[in-house]
Amino acid sequence: MSKYLFESNYVGEGIKGLMREGGTKRRDAVVEALKSAGGSLECFYYAFGETDVVGVFDIPDQANAAALSLLINSTGSVSLRLKPLMTPEDLDEAAKKTPSYRAPGQ
Fold first, then answer.
1. Which of 13, 90, 93, 101 has minimal Cβ neighbours within 10 Å of its Cβ?
2. pTM, whole model, 2 decimals?
3. CA distance 8 to 87
4. Helix axes of 62-74 and 23-36: crossing angle, nearest 10 degrees
5. Architecture of domain 2-87 in CATH?
6. Cα-flanking dihedrals φ and ψ of residue 103, to 5°?
């Protein structure tokens, strides 16, 4: 399973829908959407300021995460951004790798 941090903002009719349905029903909709893609919700929080909702979910792979993101963003009611998360062990593995790279101008 892959873990993602998500940040979203309600847009236009999405704000009206949130006000009509309330926060728990929108969270339940996220849980159901994740289940349909083989995922699960770890945490979900409302915020205010630049971001309306933040949370973490698990999903089987990048393709399912991308499909869910495309579907949600295509509604025009929510702007969703995903950030893949790594464990400290994942970073340890990355640090052991030795890719080749030339910096600009060198």
1. 101
2. 0.88
3. 23
4. 140
5. 2-Layer Sandwich (3.30)
6. -70, 155
